[in-house]
Specification:
This protein is an alpha+beta fold. The protein has a single domain, classed as Extracellular Endonuclease, subunit A (Extracellular Endonuclease, Chain A, 3-Layer(aba) Sandwich). Helix content is 23%, strand content 26%. It has 9 helices and 12 strands. The strands form 3 sheets. An 8-stranded antiparallel β-sheet has the order 1-2-3-4-7-10-11-12, with helices on both faces. A two-stranded antiparallel ribbon has the order 5-6. A two-stranded antiparallel ribbon has the order 8-9. The chain is globular and about 60 Å long. It starts with a helix and ends in a 7-residue tail after the last helix. The protein binds 2-acetamido-2-deoxy-beta-D-glucopyranose. 2-acetamido-2-deoxy-beta-D-glucopyranose binds at residues 183, 186-187, 227, 229-230, 234. Residues 54-278 form the ENPP1-3/EXOG-like endonuclease/phosphodiesterase domain.
């Protein structure tokens, strides 16, 4: 009796809070109709991004390149909110009970025996980004401008960040983010987004002359939503080279072809049922692909 009470109490104190998780089961709502795109296997971990005891989006994270593969989220309206940069405690030690993302300082404060150096073993740290080359910024995959309050603060985890060319981040990429937000504002249905980066072969923010954080070659973004007014599905994709301030727009299937070419997605769909877009047989191969950059 005594022990079962203890077990119950322990369960109350430590709820099922795995946050670096086996799959995205606990944060499926950020994928259109719960469809998780199938990715080429690698050193990837699934993060259900938790802040202030709530999930806000999902990230597939590459622990070798120390950048996200993609973040999946739903665009929201409202005024964005800032926070100091955070990290993922369970990427430091899976057994850490902290389910919430937190700043490196709070993590060190909570775990006095933790060597601060260990924080960056499987993820990027603030120190890495402070050493980024000139002309690069902390580029959000899931942008804080697409959310308000806690959901916006939750985007301030470095597991959602890549070294992104500053001009691209502040101009053309931001313009595209604003477009997506405009659609979310107009639309009464959720706008689902998948946004990712493709790592480079040898371009790094270095740590003591060793590879630290990969500087990706490309960024990409895909969207899918149902337009209630026109009663039709709207979808599309875009790519950008992380060296120029330019964005290339295309269809979902063209984006998928680009990702396959770069060994990103395994065969399959980015969104449930390809966001209900009729696929003309062979059309994407025959036509010129604007996203193939
Ligand atoms: C939805 O469809 C209507 C009618 O075609 C169009 O005017 C509107 O711009 C569309 N909204 C979005 C968010 O795509």
């Amino acid at each position: 009796m005594q022990s079962s009470v203890t077990v119950c109490l322990l369960l109350l104190v430590f709820p099922v809070n795995a946050h670096v998780v086996e799959n995205f089961e606990m944060c499926m709502e950020y994928f259109y109709k719960g469809h998780v795109p199938e990715w080429t296997p690698n050193d990837h971990v699934h993060i259900c991004q938790m802040f202030n005891n709530r999930y806000h989006f999902a990230t597939l994270y590459d622990t070798t390149n120390r950048i996200p593969v993609y973040s999946a989220y739903v665009v929201e309206d409202g005024k964005s909110s800032d926070h100091r940069w955070m990290v993922e405690p369970q990427l430091v030690k899976q057994e850490f009970e902290e389910a919430n993302m937190m700043t490196e300082n709070s993590l060190i404060y909570k775990h006095r025996t933790l060597d601060p150096k260990d924080i960056g073993t499987r993820q990027a740290t603030d120190d890495d980004y402070n050493k980024r080359p000139d002309g690069y910024s902390r580029g959000h995959l899931n942008p804080n401008s697409h959310h308000a309050g806690d959901a916006s603060k939750a985007t301030m985890t470095l597991t959602n960040i890549v070294p992104q060319k500053q001009s691209l981040n502040e101009k053309k990429w931001k313009d595209h983010e604003d477009t997506l937000k405009g659609w979310a504002k107009d639309n009464k249905e959720n706008v689902y987004v998948l946004v990712g980066a493709i790592p480079s072969k040898g371009n790094w923010i270095k740590r003591d002359n060793q590879p630290g954080v990969n500087i990706p070659d490309y960024m990409w973004v895909a969207h899918c939503y149902y337009n209630k007014t026109s009663q039709s599905y709207e979808s599309g994709g875009a790519t950008a080279k992380n060296v120029e301030n330019k964005i290339y727009k295309c269809t979902l299937s063209q984006l998928q072809a680009f990702l396959q070419q770069h060994n990103q997605v395994a065969a399959g769909q980015l969104f449930h049922n390809d966001c209900y877009v009729e696929q003309a047989a062979g059309a994407s191969a025959a036509a010129e692909n604007p996203c193939d950059i």
